[in-house]
Amino acid sequence: MKKYVLIFKTSIRTILERSHLIAKLYQVSKDVKFATVDLDDEDFILRIESTQRNEDFISRFLHLEGHQVAFLAAFEKDEQGRPLLQPAYY
User: Fold this and answer.
1) Given 29, 50, 60, 72, which residue has the most CB atoms within 10 angstroms?
2) Closest Cα to residue 34, out of 44, 46, 45?
């Protein structure tokens, strides 16, 4: 099974918002296995571990919940949880 890490910039500002949105996200998507929001980061980074590349779904979900969101990055993880890096071409 593939594992992905999806990174978003959000407008989630409080512990209550974070708790509510993450709980609801687990309910609406079976693919989301782990989610966190860094409330100490100036961009309020949402980091999601998922079995699918579902950044469009997550962006729409956050917009429907009244939050601003910008997708920043995604990468695939191996079975040990290490990022699989794509070769850089110059």
Assistant:
1) 50
2) 46
State pTM to two decimals.
0.85
Expressed in percent and rounded to 5, the helix, strand and coil fractions of the chain are: 25, 35, 40
* Sequential DSSP letters for 16-39: HHHHHHHHHHHHH-SSEEEEEE-T
What's the pLDDT tens digit per position in 47-60?
999 999 999 999 99
19 alpha-carbon distance from chain centroid: 14
Q: What's the chain's length in residues?
A: 90
In which element (H, E) is residue 62 found? helix 55-64
